[in-house]
Design brief:
Elements: H1 9-22, E1 26-31, E2 40-45, E3 50-58, E4 64-68, E5 74-75, H2 76-89, E6 94-99
Parallel strand pairs: 2-6
Antiparallel strand pairs: 1-6, 2-3, 3-4, 3-5
Amino acid sequence: MKPDPQLKSKIWAEALIRRARLGGAFAYLRHHGDDDAGVVLIKIALMNDTAMIWAPERDEDYNRVWVAQSESPQSEAEADAWIERALQTDPDLWVVEIEDPQARHFLLPHEVGST
């Protein structure tokens, strides 16, 4: 099955940052990847020296789904090391960092505006 057309990575990352800010979190672009097709990773800093990383994968129908890269929050140092390893493998990656003690990733509609 062919993938659905997607927004360019730059537009998608900028929209996620804006969505998080509208939801009351602090968000910024940590690493600028390829404008058109770089994969976007999301780091959620929980403001207690722990973090979660979310990365996209494809399901059996080739739809993008977001998967946490650990079952529970890990130390920020471990999360940052994970991101650095990923960037060494793929320098076209985008990294959006969201600082939110509620661990919201803002990928779901109900997360915008909830505090």
